[in-house]
Amino acid sequence: MAVILQGRNEALAGLEGFFKAEERIRQSGIYLMEPYDPDRIPVLLIHGLISLPMIWRDIIPEMISDPEISERYQFMVFTYPSSYPLVESAALLRGELARLRAEYDPGGTDPLSRNMLVAGHSMGGMLTHTLVVDIGDNLWRQSVTVPSTRCRLATRSVKTSVVWSTSSPTPPCDE
Questions:
Q1: How far apart are CA 133 and CA 167, in angstroms?
Q2: Is the pLDDT of residue 47 over 80?
Q3: Cα–Cα distance for residue pair 110/2, rounded to 1 Å
Q4: Is residue 65 included in any domain, yes or no?
Q5: What angle do CA 41, 87, 8 make, to 5 degrees?
Q6: Is the pLDDT confidence value at 65 over 60?
Q7: Residue numbers of the domain that contains 49
Q8: I want to staple 174 with a disulfide (CB 3.0 to 4.6 A). Which of 62, 93, 160, 169 is the partner?
Q9: Is residue 12 part of a domain?
Q10: For 131-169, how does the pLDDT look when each residue is reduced to its tens digit (9 = 90+)?
């Protein structure tokens, strides 16, 4: 968490993450609070609008200091530019989860792929929700009259909208 914060003021850093999204995107990602352990259940915490993972600064040490919790769970945080549209942030989150799983659990047998807990505050809660909903192509069909397969997509936002608006739950959230 210290790497993300680099000694900055929480409120100012949250505002910078909102208003300077293109700078904040370089720091976006999922950060493990300790080395990955395939035998412990991951708990991913997601901050909200105009915020940073720093909001978890009291909760994470408290949880890690409890031997029963620390033995069973490992904590990680997701950070993103909170001014991005929800669909872009959701796509970023899904991409980061896929990257993390490819790196630490390529076989899909660890809790990272089977038994993960995700909690979010405010907009982070909305991002968490996008991992468990199955909207199929309902959102796309209600918004656009042309099938997504026939669209020529030019911008990142439009491409991301198609991916997210036709998404299914993210494993392990689909059971």
A1: 8
A2: yes
A3: 27
A4: yes
A5: 70
A6: yes
A7: 2-134
A8: 169
A9: yes
A10: 988 766 666 667 677 766 666 655 554 555 555 555 666
Domain-located, residue 172:
no
What is the rounded distance in angstroms from the CA atom of residue 84 to the CA atom of residue 98?
Answer: 20
Q: What are 125's two structure tokens?
A: 């809660």
Burial classification of residue 146, based on how many CB atoms lie within 10 Å of its CB (0-12 exposed, 13-18 middle, 19 or more buried): exposed
Beta strands in the chain (DSSP E): 29-32, 41-46, 73-79, 117-120
Cα gap 145→80, rounded to integer Å: 31
What whole-number distance in Å separates Cα of residue 138 and Cα of residue 112? 29
For tokens 């689909």, the residue is 174
Structure tokens belonging to residue 132: 């468990």
Question: Residue 112 falls within a domain, yes or no?
Answer: yes
Amino acid (one-letter) located at 35? P
Q: Which positions ≥6 away from 160 have C-beta within 8 Å?
A: 85, 87, 88, 91
* pLDDT at res. 79: 93
Burial of 83 (0-12, 13-18, 19+ CB in 10 A): middle
Of 24, 74, 80, nearest to 53 by C-alpha is 80
Number of folded domains that form the chain: 1
